[in-house]
Design a protein that fits this description.
CATH class of the largest domain: Alpha Beta
CATH architecture of the largest domain: 3-Layer(aba) Sandwich
Number of domains: 2
CATH topology of the largest domain: Rossmann fold
Radius of gyration: 24 Å
Structural class: alpha+beta
Amino acid sequence: MSNLIIKNLTKRFDEVVAVDDLSLEVPEGEFLTLLGPSGCGKTTTLRAIAGFHHPDTGEIWFGDRLMNNVPPNKRNTAMCFQSYALFPHMNVWDNISFGLKMRKMPAAQQKTRIREALSMVGLEGLERRKPGQLSGGQQQRVALARAIVTQPDILLFDEPLSNLDAKLRVQVRVEIREMQKRLGITSIYVTHDQDEALAISDRIVIMNRGRIEQMGDPHSIYLHPQTPFVAGFIGLANIFEGRVISRDGDRLSVDTPIGPLSLIDRKRDLQPGSTVGVSWRPEDMRPWAPGAPNHVQATVLYSIFMGSITDLFIDVKGKRLRAQTDNTTKVADGDSIELSVDETAISILRKAE
């Protein structure tokens, strides 16, 4: 295992800056996910770690070893690709053993390692099958076994579950996470799937236009977004710009297009007159009770019953919002409803740099 340090990494392709002065530290044994839309720089960063892209500027360190000029085959990393990248003419055993053979490992040691890997990914008994005789989930497990059998310092994942159906993605991502915890391998995982990132990560790095917008554990990323991009990219959010009307200790009153909102601000010194962005999640809008803060009068544009919740599209003073209520609340299109948002559920957003 090894920790990873990236210092001021920049990578350009002609006039396009794919990664822009990115710095990041990943402790030994951490499962870190690079999350963002297509073109945000996450895959370029991963490929620079693997050695497939050479940085234009900046440094990549594995522990105390500078890796900039170390070729991919000397970095002791392993990658699981979106396409699986299995050899179609080789059976499961030979696909898994390929990396060990390239390292000229003794045959007896190879057998021990391969059997351990097969057991870990649940493929015992399928050793002689070719990739074409396996399901998509089984093929991905072969690719995972091939990666872990070499006992890499850093394990890299390039959107490995994109080709699986939704139910199988959930199953395999749990297996990947459990395996990583058992082995304790430092892991970097690239995806554009926010649910996948929230479910599998110790920490998430959200990237946009080659830079880091925000990083933190899944809980803080979801509940406390720091920019409009993060609030809109992770989950659903109601986002508005407003102006601070007054401040009383940690409590702010902010004028917004849907009316004044009261919220708690413990981290910033925002004063009356300041322009701010605010956001909250649809599930934070609750049926209003007398005395509850941030009373909102809304008209239901349409509602979608989804079993455990009802998803509401609502109009408040000409602005369209999203809200969610539990399945005990029956709402029809055109109904007038009263909702509220708790002061602590509203996040203050800073402008992206």
